[in-house]
Amino acid sequence: MSFLSAEEKGLVNGLWSKVNVDEVGGEALGRLLVVYPWTQRFFQSFGDLSSADAIMSNAKVKAHGKKVLNSFSDGLKNIDDLKGAFAKLSELHCDKLHVDPENFRLLGNVLVCVLAHHFGHEFNPQGNSLGPQTLIPGHV
Amino acid sequence: MVLSSADKNNVKACWGKIGSHAGEYGAEALERTFCSFPTTKTYFPHFDLSHGSTQVQAHGQKVADALTKAVAHIDDLPNALSDLSDLHAYKLRVDPVNFKFLSHCLLVTLACHHPEEFTPAVHASLDKFFSAVSTVLTSKYR
After folding, report:
1. Quick one: which of B100, B93, B105 has its CA closest to B132?
2. Taking a contact as any Cβ pair under 8 Å apart, which residues of chain A between 31 and 90 contact chain B?
3. Domain B5-42+49-138 belongs to what architecture?
4. Segments making up each domain of chain B, as ranges
5. Distance between CA A26 and CA A57 in Å, rounded?
6. Could you tell me which of B78, B83, B93, B80 has the C-alpha nearest to residue B142?
7. Contact B112 A119 (CB under 8 A)
8. Nearest CB to A121: which of B104, B112, B119?
9. ipTM reported for the complex, 2 dp
10. Considering only CB atoms, which chain A residues are within 8 Å of B36?
11. What percent of chain A has pLDDT over 90?
């Protein structure tokens, strides 16, 4: 399955090469927990999530965000076979973690906002549109 | 979901900083919506949707003016937006899912142009505000 054209893949990879994956991951996960506080239900063991500041500076949130975004990067390297690339993670999230797939859509949207926040005017509508297209199929 | 006083203050402060750029951002948010969520274009078959279109600019200004009014009447959205609510329910009948798409693109636009304002707390408040406006606009659908 290839849902992105060659040009779109180029745009996504071009943008991603400028992303500080470690930092952006922590910020995206942090913002998910701030903007959609019910998502905190999956992270009860993460310690202090009592305020926006606490969440954004929480070391476990940053570490886990880094892990999540590194998985995204792996996905991008296997963009023509996302199902295969994410098979194990998909099983984990479904059978063990019991995460409602709606949460993947929320995280995808937050990630697009974080990228827009970082890249500003560089984040043109074409880049914007590739976010949902790329990130949402990621929740196979 | 209820807007707290902190949410209302965040929204008013952020919208205040946007000032006269609101129309420009409204148009940009629309363009992003059409680009990212092409199904939304089905509501505008009569529009030129190319980049820089004067129709999109005008419509963006309209959307921005409505949001500015909503901010000014943030304590009573149902009354302030009653006419728009009727319009969307009985005439336009835009499927409710599309309000989420436009709200997302408004957030993206604001994040691009006002990175200092777009803190996590303000991001949350804006998302709640757009959600509250969307709820009012779809409140008379059925």
Report:
1. B100
2. 31, 34-35, 52, 55-56
3. Orthogonal Bundle (1.10)
4. 5-42+49-138
5. 9
6. B93
7. yes
8. B112
9. 0.77
10. 125, 128-129, 131-133
11. 46
